Amino acid sequence: QVQLVESGGGLVQAGGSLRLSCAASGSMFSINAMGWYRQALGKQRELVAVITSDGSTNYAASVKGRFTISRDNAKNTVYLQATSLKPEDTAVYYCNALGSFAWGIALDAWGQGTLVTVSS
User: Radius of gyration over alpha carbons of the chain, in Å?
Assistant: First the structure.
């Protein structure tokens, strides 16, 4: 089993910043990639950023240059440094982990979500 625990969400003013974190815990698993998704009210969930074990990253065009994803492989923790926040960034942010369990079964885990609200 694996559990993702998120933290760092909250209320910020436009132009401010937040750092989200997500730690994976459990046993008998290996994570290959971790990422952040978000879902605004009335919208579909969308990819924000993803990072693989070797450090390769990808970002949604809407956040490129403002958000930075990083990972501590030893801690199985992923971070999202969000700067220059805009009201359009308001959403519930979800952590995701992809990998495999020791017995060869694919792992696809999600966190509970953390709310980011950006005020004007």
Answer: 14
Residue range 38-93, pLDDT digits in tens? 999 999 999 999 999 899 999 999 999 999 999 998 888 999 999 999 999 999 99
Q: Is the dihedral of CA 67, 24, 91, 60 positive or negative?
A: positive
CA–CA distance, 64 with 61 (Å, rounded to integer): 5
CB–CB of 55/63 below 8 Å? Answer: no
3 state SS of 29 = strand
Q: How far is Cα 90 from Cα 62, in angstroms, rounded to an integer? A: 13
Return d(Cα 5, Cα 94) in angstroms, integer: 10
Q: In whole angstroms, give the CA distance from residue 71 to residue 93.
A: 16
Bridge partners for 19 per DSSP: 81
pLDDT reported for residue 56: 96
Calpha distance 18→53 (Å, rounded): 23
